[in-house]
Amino acid sequence: QVPVVLGRAAAEYLARHLDENRVRGLGVGWGTTLRETIRHMRAANLPELSVNSMMGGLSHGLELNTFEIASELARRIAAQCNYFAAPIYAGSARSRDTILAQDVFRDCLQRLATNDVAVLSVGDLSRRSLLIRYGLPRDVTVESLRAAGAVGDIMGTFLDPRGVPVKHGLNQRVIAPPIAILRDIATVIVASGGLNKAASLAAVLRARLCSVLVSDEATVRAAMGLLRGMG
What we know:
This protein is an alpha/beta fold. The protein contains nine helices and nine strands. The protein has helices at 2-20, 32-39, 66-76, 93-101, 103-112, 130-135, 142-147, 198-206, 217-230; strands spanning 25-28, 50-53, 80-82, 117-120, 122-123, 152-154, 157-159, 187-191, 212-214. The protein has a six-stranded parallel β-sheet with strand order 3-2-1-4-8-9, sandwiched between helices. Strands 5-6-7 form a three-stranded antiparallel β-sheet. α3 (66-76) links the parallel β2 (50-53) and β3 (80-82). α1 (2-20) packs across α2 (32-39), α2 runs parallel beside α3 and α8 (198-206) crosses α9.
């Protein structure tokens, strides 16, 4: 299964990176591949490292959720853990702004900006996407995202083929830092695979939101073909 293979590879890369570099802040996302990454992480003792959730989560328990991913990784490497204790999406753009204006979330966003490493995955618009299945607000349809030009998401922000956030109300409701923050993080590992993710990965690569890609050969070939097609 692709997530298992990619998870193992991402875990090996991340463990080696943590061994060889002084990392104070490690941002994490959510999803099947990241769950497999955590499962394959070897034990370590990094009490000065802070594992930081990069986005809000689901309101119901799920082992793929941001909260579970962050806490389990922190447990495996004996690190500190900080949650982004909010839902993925607010009810409106105004309520999102109200939430993020609170001191606790301002502090959280400032902490995320100091991450040395981030480990994320991307989603697409199919039913395979956990965000599509479990995380979309009831008033948002996949059809409306597609009509806005979206091909997939990273950290809950939906992107067009060039990696630009689409003009859709949902992007004004996401409780996560702006995706531009990823360009300021020294090492951003994106672990995702399967041909359904090719367009999302091409968008992330086009926008230079990723410095290390962990994927399968067929998906990378497809993503590179899409990039070449853009000129």
